[in-house]
Amino acid sequence: MRDRLAVFLVILAVAFAVIAGLYYEGVLQIAVSDTHAAHHTTHAILFGVLAVVSLIAANFAREKTV
Amino acid sequence: MTREQALFMGLLQGATELFPVSSLGHSVIIPTLLHWRFKQSDPTFVPFLVLLHLGTAGALLVLYRQQWIAIIRGFFTAAVRGRITTEPERLAMLLLTGTIPAGILGVFLENRIKSLFASPYVAAGFLVVNGFLLLGFELLRRRAERRASLDSRTRAEQEEGFAAAERISFRAAAVIGACQALAFLPGISRSGVTIGGGLLAGLRHQEAARFSFLLATPVILAAGLVEVPQLFATGVPIGEYVAAALLSGIAAYASARFLLRYFRSGRLDPYGWYCIAAGAVSLVLLTFRA
Fold this sequence. Notes:
- The structure holds two protein chains of two kinds.
- By secondary structure, chain A is mostly helical.
- In chain A, 67% of the residues lie in helices and 0% in strands.
- Chain A has two helices and no strands.
- By secondary structure, chain B is mainly alpha-helical.
- Chains A and B meet through helix 2 of A and helix 5 of B.
């Protein structure tokens, strides 16, 4: 059960990383203040951080072999 | 903006950022009452605010430098190990939990909310609301003290009956972090809602203030750093702005030291009454000035 949650969180991390890349490249324009900007750095950083946090959460969720 | 105005704004921002009285509210109301005509749409105004916030964040980093070293170490240790074993590790993960909702709401909502409510009248109104919120937090805290049969004890003994920041639950940390979004409304204090949230979560006043200041640092720092490229825009009087930021940092450091001492036995009530009075007086002055 815990490993399933860990796998889900890893998938979530990948999804956040992809969204971060799309915001940085200006492909995603959802909820941005300037739709003509080439890069949405703030949004990209946010989703990058969320990707890292999801990986940390996955590490907490996985079964430990102690 | 003249040099004197820049320095005054630095002092005002630094002093009011950590007091539970809304720095944004004060920086919207006071220049209007003083008939200062600088435009917040001016391209040099954002870099100015950026530097003021970096000054405040710098002051908090200096104040809590030892704790931040332990928190950062604890964060990496716990993240790699996948388990929390020490108090700094727990505090690091609590701060991360509190920062995420604030970051998400900040990126998606801050500019919209600020542009919707950026009026001195609205700021004065929300300052009154902030006052009632602070009084409400203390009302609920006094009830908690009565329930724990602490109401007949001295203030120091009452505070001993509550917890340190490291003992807060992760759910409470997330809720307190999300409450920071309320401070996008000019007049609602970020430190006020987070200290109040800490009190509701069962922290001592001083610990609620410490958690609030620690929680503020990454958010203020990140918001400042993201805007750093704007500092290199042409026409920015960097010397004056750096001086204002230093003043902001010194004021923030002094106010944090004062508040941590004050909250050993003090409550939020005086700040609540101040906000109600300042908001009401500002509303009257703004009405008659128009």
